[in-house]
User: Fold these one by one.
Assistant:
Number 1:
Amino acid sequence: MLDWIIIGAGIHGCTTAAHLAYADPSLTRDKRLLLIDSGPGPLSAWNTMTERVGMKYLRSPGVHHLHPRVRDLFSFAKRNHYYSSHFSGSSKKPSVSLFRHHCAKVIEEMDLTSCFEQAHAFNIDRCGAYWMVDTERGTLFTKRVVLATGTKEHCSLPSWLPAADQGGACHIHQKQEPEPVRPPATVIGGGMSGVQKALDLSRRFPGQVTLALRHPLRVWEYDAAPEWMGGKYRQVCRNTSTFSERRHAITRARRSGSITKNLYRQVQRQQGLGRLEVRQDPIRRVTSRQSHWLLHGSAATWEARAILCATGDQYHPAQNPLLFRLINSCQLPLAPCGYPALAPYSPVWARGLYVSGPLADLAIGPTARNIAGARTAAACIQQEAQHACT
Ligand SMILES: Cc1cc2nc3c(=O)[nH]c(=O)nc-3n(C[C@H](O)[C@H](O)[C@H](O)COP(=O)(O)OP(=O)(O)OC[C@H]3O[C@@H](n4cnc5c(N)ncnc54)[C@H](O)[C@@H]3O)c2cc1C
């Protein structure tokens, strides 16, 4: 019998695992905690995705990382001679290489790799006072489960892309490795992933890359205003009584599809040098030719051999087969928006069942899906579990 199974070894699953293991190292030493993921190792999806979009610096500040101690990344950077070029801006956003190195240190320190198993969970159910998790490698029994399954299973290509014959077209967040990009290429979407990918390609294929947008680029330093990283959501929860009001506040606070000032400047530069074309022209239709696509906007038609969609994820818990079955078999409470009905700062969906990431939206607020939210959820889970034991 395990103490914990964490499903999903992304940023959220690993942050929870790290918080639990630092609080009680015997969990990993005695293999009472198991981290499972359908990917090959802890953070494999994160590493693939950041590399795929050509990300250089994180969007979040250097105090957001896996380790429970807030300033751990800074002291790690100092000890390992990472100089100022590995930090961007006044909030010291770490370089991707520094962040990865720090993650590897946390994983090694807490021996999370030896507690990791590559397995896909396809069924979770109550089993008396415990939980049962079915994977293709067998059934596991545990006292507690953490669902940290992310949104990446839910990428969908825009409806205007013909379903048949999608060679050369992909979603930038899809699980399968996309085909190598052949220019001319069009990247669709003005958020962090789309813009970073367009910049990356414009350096590799100058003058042969288009960034297609539905609206002008929106510039915000973070994907939720900094006050949401403090106690503002607590205040919202005190002042609003219903889940719908909380959902409304979260939707309004999120700045999805926005980019940092630094990236905006890089776009202007690449545009000025004629390396990147930015078209604010919503695509109406796409037609395929023998070796390329024709993209028809409202104002123009242009050619592409590769179409990379960075158009977000269509995530909804009930669309995930694992969650759909779990919700129905355990009669789990849902808010009107279809997300777990959770008390503020309490990512506990049922006794012994915890959530992190998008599933914790209503508990954690606008930052729930990013690294700040992973830290908050992990700290809450660790405290709740400790409290339940005493
Ligand atoms: C390119 C990029 C850059 C980002 N940069 C930042 C940033 O700088 N700062 C910030 O705060 N946020 C950032 N984000 C947002 C967010 O922090 C990341 O998306 C983060 O990776 C989300 O982590 P996650 O663990 O929720 O999801 P994921 O990384 O998707 O991990 C979920 C894992 O669960 C596994 N899984 C799902 N279902 C099952 C199952 N049934 N059985 C087994 N395994 C399963 C998946 O294989 C996956 O590995 C960024 C996002 C992207 C895409």
Number 2:
Amino acid sequence: MAREFTTVGVVGLGTMGAGIAEVFARQGYAVVGVELSDESLERGRQHLTNSTKRAVDRGKLSEADQQALMERVTLSTDLADLAEADLVVEAIVESLSAKQEVFRALDAIVKPEAVLATNTSSLSVTEISTANASPGRVVGVHFFNPAPVQELVEVVRTVVTAPDVLEDVTALLTSIGKSPVVAGDKAGFIANTLLFGYLNHAVAMYEGRYATREDIDAAMRFGCGYPMGPLALLDLIGLDTAYEILDTMYRQGRDRLHAPAPILKQMVTAGLLGRKTGRGFYTYDGPDSSAVVPDALTPSADDAPQLHHTIETVGVVGTGTMATGIVEVFAKAGYDVVVVGRSDAKVAGVSTSLERSLDKQVQRGRMEEADKQPVLDRMTGTTKQDDLADVDLVVEAIAEDLAGQDDAVREPRRDLQAGGDPRHHHLLAAGHRVRPGHLAAPGRHRHALLQPRPGDEAGRGGQHGGHLRRGRGDDHPRCARS
Ligand SMILES: NC(=O)c1ccc[n+]([C@@H]2O[C@H](COP(=O)([O-])OP(=O)(O)OC[C@H]3O[C@@H](n4cnc5c(N)ncnc54)[C@H](O)[C@@H]3O)[C@@H](O)[C@H]2O)c1
């Protein structure tokens, strides 16, 4: 039968421990919080009071509930007060010896069936557990900061964790509204292993001058829908913390994805720790500020590419999903669009999909019915590439699988270039990777990943504004130009 948990002990009431105590107390559990000294106990109490007061201020907790919550928490400086606990969560400093000491001491205090958990981020749960006489009852419970808000908890099993312990802890976490996931005992567990490999890769890209910090961050925000770019996120986490996490994972797993990019260490040594020191990958208007201010790397207005041609008509070659989306982006922005397909039926398909997409936007209140027809009227379809002779920009978006078949791609592209009047300065952009050999005049080609985004409707004032923005939505316009 599954264990019943009624009393939860929390050892260490710092950032994480106070949050974990709050999580359980909010759900009606009796909580016993243990700290090192009266002074740190008082700090823990303040953490709890401030956090629950914020919840009251935001209308997420009533004052009466806050008071009841605080009454469910007993604070102590004596581990012996954990005798009644059914579960103890250790959240003290990240030190193996200090954690082992707690797990050793708990042996003589808690009931034999009590479950012991550690909130460690990077130490080995197995090593911590061996300090206890019954390592089978030890698991990792990795809460995320801030614990009352973040839903994810990684439950870490060691090779000796008893299956019923794992099941009971996972069920308990689910019952208090968390979303537990189970992982083996490897530094980084699931989320940090994946996240920090990605963050480290972004740093390496920046270090290798592959792209600017603004473009690296924009790519992940606007291309993948992440709320923050990787470099801005590293500034928030703190470069010193990120370095330590990567270094620990690298030393344990030897996966070169986690070998900290050298510039990370250099920045840490130079005191560029991110927001906390006011400077990291970006510069902030002071320590602990989130407001980015310009610095030497901020692109100046003079760097912004100028458009040398007036763009009025855009040709789109292709009739697939991407081509249809690209047609929509340009037509909604006020450009006349010529779609080239391999058959009338395929061209008609683009027109139908475009109409369907606009209908959906009208239904969702994102577009006025009256604005629909003018957009549809801007699209014309053809099966002849010669009809591209007068367009100012050609976007190639034919199927990726065709791109593998050299002739299928090279020929249409050569045709495009042969058909174009050089005086019109045709601009070629591709919706996917293009090998330079495919193009007779690679200098005229810009590879732009054109992905329609919801709300990408900035448009231009008039029909002949001639300013073409890449879909970024920030204040660094880029123009496709030859
Ligand atoms: N901060 C985070 O974002 C985060 C996220 C997930 C996990 N963690 C992990 O959680 C643990 C705690 O981190 P934190 O950020 O809350 O640290 P913290 O420094 O804010 O708090 C640690 C607290 O433990 C107390 N303490 C130290 N030794 C003790 C002992 N022997 N008995 C009782 N109390 C003791 C300290 O007085 C302090 O109040 C660490 O293992 C850390 O790796 C941290």
